[in-house]
């Protein structure tokens, strides 16, 4: 062989002995990275399971309390709005009677209870939304704000009416005011029941405010 001739080059493939000399080891393909949407969906599902459980329980309890508050305030408004009493005796020029409309505090109680009960009835759809979507904060914030207004309205009405009822039961010796309820017992009992029912409704709404605040707190 002359020194100027090119030496031939032969490529030799080194393979696995068990699979033959002409085959190569092939690495497995890399694992597919899940898309971001599926990761976000799993994260949202996990958040719903961990946080939505107790919030949904609060929302269901809030719904039941809302129904009870409506019943208490409607009962109070009916009791006070139908409060009327007339004594069996009268004179030639005057008949002794008592009506809730004669006292502005009692009229205010009827109006306040009606407004609060109407709001609570309209707020039921928002309470249902909180049950279906417990993670959403907008409906709870709406309920928290307007529940506070309902508490302020009902407590103010109940407090003013309670002062009149107390004065009607006890009178005032310094002002020479005799107890009004000595004669109008039925009227005073019915008005007292309306005041108690209003306070019960206000306490229920206060409890709903606390529950909404707990549901809105951050972990």
TrEMBL record:
- What GO cellular component entries does it have? plasma membrane
Q: Write the signal peptide boundaries.
A: none
What coarse category fits the chief subcellular location reported for this protein? membrane
The answer on whether this UniProt entry bears the keyword Transferase reads no
Casparian strip membrane protein domain spans which residues? 56-203
Subcellular location per the Swiss-Prot or TrEMBL entry: Cell membrane
Q: Give yes or no: UniProt keyword rRNA processing.
A: no
Which InterPro entries does the record cross-reference, listed alphabetically? CASP/CASPL, CASP_dom, CASPL
Q: How does it assemble?
A: Homodimer and heterodimers.
Q: What is this protein called?
A: CASP-like protein
Q: What is the native source organism of this protein?
A: Vanilla planifolia (Vanilla)
Lineage start: Eukaryota, Viridiplantae, Streptophyta, Embryophyta, Tracheophyta
């Amino acid at each position: 062989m002359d020194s100027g001739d090119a030496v031939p080059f032969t490529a030799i493939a080194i393979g696995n002995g068990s699979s033959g000399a002409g085959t190569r080891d092939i690495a497995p393909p890399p694992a597919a990275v899940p898309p971001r949407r599926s990761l976000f969906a799993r994260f949202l599902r996990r958040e719903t399971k961990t946080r939505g459980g107790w919030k949904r329980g609060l929302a269901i309890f809030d719904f039941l309390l809302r129904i009870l508050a409506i019943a208490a305030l409607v009962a109070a408004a009916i009791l006070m709005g139908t409060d009327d009493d007339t004594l069996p005796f009268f004179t030639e020029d005057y008949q002794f009677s008592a009506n809730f409309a004669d006292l502005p505090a009692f009229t205010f109680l009827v109006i306040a209870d009606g407004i609060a009960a109407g709001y609570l009835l309209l707020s039921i759809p928002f309470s249902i939304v909180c049950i279906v979507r417990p993670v959403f904060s907008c409906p709870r914030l709406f309920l928290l704000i307007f529940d506070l207004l309902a508490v302020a309205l009902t407590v103010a009405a109940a407090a003013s009416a309670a002062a009149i009822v107390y004065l009607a039961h006890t009178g005032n010796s310094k002002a020479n005011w005799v107890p009004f309820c000595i004669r109008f017992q039925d009227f005073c009992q019915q008005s007292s029941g309306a005041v108690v029912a209003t306070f019960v409704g206000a306490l229920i709404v206060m409890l709903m405010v606390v529950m909404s605040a707990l549901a809105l707190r951050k972990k």
